[in-house]
């Protein structure tokens, strides 16, 4: 099981942590949208007993055990295009995405 961050994503997480504190990046999924699942991206304020922690370049990636199967093998990038900036998931588990890009299906 693994989740990785690009250099750009690592730097963005560091900037959030320097500004807002936190232990790392918390990733998860929640049931929603027209395709079934959406990503949760936030600063990790704590690490719970059922969390799995990955570390890359001194940045922790914290994932709830229940979300791990949906995210395993993903690479997270931070992309800035024009006035919009966002974390982008390259997730090998996704079989379909909705047209708006807000939700996804896992096969």
Could you walk me through the main structural features you see in this protein, from its secondary elements to its overall organization?
- The protein has one domain (4-106): Hypothetical Protein Aq_1857, Chain: A, CATH 2.60.300.12.
- Helices cover 20% and strands 50% of the residues.
- The two termini are 18 Å apart.
- It is of the alpha/beta class and 107 residues long.
- The protein is built from two helices and nine strands.
- The strands form three sheets. It has a four-stranded mixed β-sheet. A three-stranded mixed β-sheet has the order 1-6-7.
- The protein is globular and about 35 Å long.
- The model has no long low-confidence stretch (mean pLDDT 89).
Overview features:
alpha/beta, Hypothetical Protein Aq_1857, Chain: A, three-stranded mixed β-sheet, 2 helices, 20% helix, globular
Summarize the structure.
This protein is of the alpha/beta class. It contains 2 helices and 9 strands, in the order E-H-E-E-E-E-H-E-E-E-E.
Write the layout of secondary structure elements.
Blueprint (H helix, E strand, L loop, with lengths): L3 E2 L1 H14 L3 E9 L3 E9 L6 E6 L2 E6 H7 L3 E7 L2 E7 L3 E4 L6 E3 L1
Parallel strand pairs: 1-6, 2-5
Antiparallel strand pairs: 2-3, 4-5, 6-7, 8-9
The CATH class is identified as Mainly Beta
What sort of overall outline do the alpha carbons produce when their principal axes are compared?
A: globular
The helix-strand sequence is EHEEEEHEEEE
Number of domains: 1
What CATH architecture label applies? Sandwich
Distance between the termini: 18 Å
Helix content: 10-25%
Give the strand line-up of the largest sheet: 3-2-5-4
Number of strand elements: 9
CATH level 3 topology: Hypothetical Protein Aq_1857, Chain: A
Continuous helix count: 2
Structural class computed from helices and strand pairing: alpha/beta
Radius of gyration: 13 Å
The share of residues in extended strands comes to over 45%
Q: Quick one: biggest sheet?
A: 4 strands, mixed
Q: Name the poorly predicted regions.
A: none
How would you name the CATH homologous superfamily?
HesB-like domain
Overall residue-averaged pLDDT value: 89
């Amino acid at each position: 099981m693994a989740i990785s961050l690009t250099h750009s994503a690592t730097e963005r997480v560091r900037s959030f942590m320097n500004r807002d504190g936190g232990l790392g990046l918390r990733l998860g999924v929640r049931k929603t949208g027209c395709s079934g699942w959406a990503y949760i991206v936030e600063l990790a304020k704590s690490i719970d007993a059922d969390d799995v922690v990955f570390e890359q370049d001194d940045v922790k990636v914290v994932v709830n055990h229940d979300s791990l199967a949906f995210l395993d093998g993903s690479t997270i990038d931070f992309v800035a295009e024009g006035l919009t900036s966002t974390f982008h998931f390259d997730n090998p588990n996704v079989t379909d995405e909705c047209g708006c890009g807000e939700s996804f299906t896992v096969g």
